[in-house]
Amino acid sequence: MKRSRSDLRAKLEYYDRLLSKTILKYQNPVTGLLPAFLFEDGTAGWAENHAWVRDNVYSVLAVWGLATVYRRGAEGEENREKAYNLEQTVVKLMRSLLMAMMRQAGKVELFKKSRSRTDALHAKYSISTCATVVGDYNWGHLQVDATSLYLLTLAQMIAGGLQIIFTLDEVAFVQNLVFYVERAYHISDYGIWERGDKTNHGETELNATSIGMAKAALEAINELDLFGSRGGPSSIIHVMGDEIAQCNTKLVSLLPRESSSKEVDAGLLTIISYPAFAASTTELCDATRTEVISKLEGRYGCKRFLRDGYQTVKEDPHRLHYEPSELKVFENIECEWPLFFELLLLDALIRGDAPAIKSYREKLESVVIRDGSEGLVTVPELYQVPEDKVSWEYQKPHSQDRVPGHKKQHMWSQSLYILCGLLEEGLLNIGEIDPLNRRLSMAAQPDPLVQIVLLSEDRKMSVALKKRGITAETVHRAEQDPTFPIKILPAHYLPRLYQQLGISSKMGLSGRPMQSVGVIGTSQLYHIHEAVVAFTPQFLDHEAFYICLDNRLLVDLIRTDLAYLKANWKLMGRPTMVLPLTRTMMGEEGTWDKSPVFRLTQALVAGYIAGVRVQVGVMADYLDTASVKQLHFIDPVKAASLLDIPQIDTKITRSSMLGRVGRRSFVKVDRNSEAIMDTIKKSRMTPPTKHKLFLPQLSVTPSPLPLRVSSSTSLSPLTPQPLEELLASAYTAKRRSFQSDRLLVGQVPSFVPGTPRHASLDVGNIEDLIQRLQQEENIYVQADILNHLHNTCGRSFQLEVRGQTCTLSSLLEELYQKSGTLHLWSLVRHIAGILEKTVEDLGTAATDLLVRQKNFSVGLPNNEIDITQPLPSSELVAKIRSVCGGDHSAAAFTQETIIYLAMFIRAEPELFKEMLRLRVGLIQNVMVLELSRAMNCTLEQGLEQLLDLNPYDVKRLLHLIFSRKEFAISEMERDTMFVDGQILTMPDKQISIKLPDKKQVRGKLRNDVEVLGKASEELRSEELRSEGDEKAGHWIRRRRLDGALNRVPPDFYPKVWHILERCTGISIGMKSLPQNPTIHEMTPGELKFALLLESHLNSLPAPEYRQLVVECLMVVSLVTTSSTQPAFGGTLVVEHIIHHAHHLFLQDQRGHTGPAMDCCCGHVGSCGGATGICVHFYDSAPSGRYGTMSYMALAVADRLREVHRPDDQCKMN
Length: 1213
What we know:
Layout: H1 5-22, E1 37-38, E2 50-52, H2 53-72, H3 77-102, H4 105-114, E3 124-126, H5 144-159, H6 168-181, H7 208-221, H8 241-254, H9 269-272, H10 282-296, H11 339-351, H12 354-365, E4 369-371, E5 376-378, E6 383-384, H13 390-395, E7 403-404, E8 409-410, H14 411-424, H15 430-433, E9 449-456, H16 459-467, E10 473-474, H17 475-480, E11 487-489, H18 493-498, E12 503-504, E13 509-510, H19 519-522, E14 525-528, E15 531-535, H20 551-568, E16 576-581, H21 583-586, H22 596-606, E17 608-609, E18 612-616, H23 619-622, E19 628-630, H24 636-642, H25 671-684, H26 723-729, H27 766-775, H28 779-793, E20 798-801, E21 804-807, H29 808-821, H30 825-834, H31 842-850, E22 855-860, E23 863-867, H32 873-884, H33 888-907, E24 917-919, H34 920-935, H35 939-947, H36 951-962, E25 968-973, E26 976-979, E27 982-985, E28 989-994, H37 998-1001, H38 1034-1044, H39 1052-1060, E29 1065-1068, E30 1071-1074, H40 1075-1081, H41 1087-1097, H42 1103-1122, E31 1131-1133, H43 1134-1152, H44 1175-1178, H45 1188-1203
Helix pairs in contact: 1-14, 2-3, 2-5, 2-14, 4-6, 5-6, 5-7, 7-8, 11-12, 11-14, 20-36, 27-28, 28-29, 29-30, 30-33, 31-33, 32-33, 33-36, 34-35, 38-42, 39-42, 42-43, 42-45, 43-45
């Protein structure tokens, strides 16, 4: 029924009076700041002079909402006056918070670089003076969500018409606040409740509420003019799209979890609905809401999180922190906050969910406090269980009546109560408090059309491509044609430009830190004064590393970036990608059909690749449809300086010290095209040398030794190859091809990995080595000589080569370039390690893993370094080198592996399901094992073959291992290279990874291991299989793979937690997981518990044994859920159960004359299996009458019989 004007006026007057009496009454007249709460006597008590940033922003929302109502319906002078007064009240509060933070501009500058909690902005300030009220170390100040909430609300209010920012200095500070929060996806903070880890010991953690609020703030304030309609280019805020995408990725990986110590948090309601609306899909939003309601909702509101001790009668008021064993005391008596009924009501109002609106309005009205004399409603902070009713509440949760806490009015809650009323009564529209339409952010958007501009090396290539229906611009036209619309630069110039953003010398703010830019940033066009600039993708800037030398991997990188753009593009306009094409990539025209880059261009022209719609054209056609960003904050003089690239000498004719293998066929270029040339050259790793070089032409002669490729991919019948041997020899042994204590002489064949060299030479005379180096033509011998000189004299050693003085480093660099051009990958990797080459975006790749909750370690067991926080590339490489010791190939290969893992997790995150930590060293050893098995060779030979694989095949092998697919080995000619204007085909062959024929796949890698999650009755469903059904070695291989990859069955960690409820502890290897304080501190779904259990499992060096432990714990869980026994009694020693199951297995083997009769039935451990377990037990299927899980179930039953009386038998179905 439509309300009359008088009814609406009466309602408006009611809310005006309620706001004035409950909120504005307590606003400081000088600063406009508010206290967070009121006590029963109507005062703010000890906190009367403390203004929390978060609470003040939420408290002023009701003021803004009511001001909007008056402004929209202003009739008469009185209403206009009220609207103006309320608006200025909002402005005063927001500006006071801004002034308080601007006084700490020095902290913002420090925090941009350090990300340290001691450099964080303060979380609260003085109400009367805006000064700080507590010291840097006396409060959990690092609260990214509070700063983000301020930015988000500031953006909404400015978009709604309020004038809050007055000067360009303030604009610069707000821009630096953006830098402060933009990397929230790897900033551990204290979170929305200021406590960090729920034990309140001052430990920070990654919080979904902080990341979600930061994502919302970045999206809201991007491209916003802080001066509103009065502004211009200098008052616009800029945000990097890649930072928003990373925040979203991390948020998606966390939800519905809040953090590692909080499996769910009611504060997430502010993220999935008003004010942030940060969830990317309605499904994720619904799942999070359901989780909050099912686990936290009560009669009086919602708990903040499980086992929250705040304000409970069991909390010790004399200390802030909790003991770990104390947390379980708070279970079922956590205080309930009416605030969350308001958030759920707001969410229902926005969604238009009538039943939910009615339900939560009734629940909310039942918990507010009404003042009978004035008819005012106040909302208390929380409701607690009285001390005399705690025992009853323990027994039956939600059964006892609760009482309000001593803070009778919570300002944040009071503000949202008024806001809900204004919306529900129809006085306020949601669009008026969400003018930026954040609530529509979850709406489905069409997939972007990616615009592709191909840039050929010269006109000849462009014409040839045109004949094949492929449109390509040319570098020559970029310079000579005045109509060419834009300037094209390498990606590493873009961060330099952004360093000029937000600079304020008055406040000591330096602008945006120098950080790499992702594919979203390089897929935009940039308007810089009179110039329009485009940037090539970041992966083409790999001037220091070798992976882009492999054209097939280069194509894969392009496909990955296209898929990433499809998933994460949210900007106005279409993404535009500039791809340079060179003859090194394409080869000679007659061989283009074999070129993976040419096939990529054909797929691009077809308009659909990797599930992404693309369009190939010329740049001039894309200017109107491309996403264009204005960068007018850059000073014109500085812009000219930053974009000035040194002239490149295109007429180099000097030969090289080790033989010339490539040339530059580029046209003469100047300012507009030299950057493109720079990009092309750096991406192909063959820049001109700086010295005159005089050594002979390189010789790469064919090998007389054939590759040992097996047609079968099965393991030799259970030949014991313990992983311990591999760990000892794989990456710590010196490889024969690069020995430092002996050299090779004579004309030796090109090196075949795994083939030893027999000739040696006395290396005592350095001068003889230098003379030999000048005469030697074989590139492998040159590598050995240089490697020895490096180990003996160091990289800075100066030597004279045919009258030319140079450093050893320059010779190694040249050899690196040549081996890269010739695609001699084992050489490339080894020399890259010697030269300490670093993947330019290695830190970004590590962050890609970490933001998706995949911690990783580098090194091998007993010498591992865990990476749990994002690090700069330099620091990460230093850690890698420290664990690799002097093994240069391992250092380079580890970087390469991390890059591939990051590519996988961006494109196929499902590959990493049920993995918490990635152990890079063990993963590499699995690659060696698999390659050795497939080639039927030794581990050392398999290692050499792995290092000689091209990067694309390494990536493919790794992908097949992660996806549990079989692979086969084939011989192939080495890649054809375009060298010195001619086609060069290497005479020796190399191996390649391919999918096997269907006949080879038959019967392999079935999903039998998935029975780990089935009920116990299915354990007996299969009978003993005949030996012919499965090839020997299948299951031990499967366990090694899953153990090395740290895979566990679904719900594994909660099931182990419930096992802990029935015993005093679990012993795994040399470590023990005690019941107390573990289950008293942590909940079943807590990530912190999963990480703790994972660390115990990772203490086991043999991955196949680790997997047996996982199976054993799953069996214990299945048995205990079916058992009537209350507990195991004492500590559950997993090793005892496994060895007892192994003993039962050997008994059956003796009875049936099984294959173990030849080894462990006579003498246990004689076959060399890890931890004394027979390799045949490792190679048994999990299920079936003779499966490992059947033996473990019997062992568990025996263990229960030992614990309990004979008449109280364990009952199993």
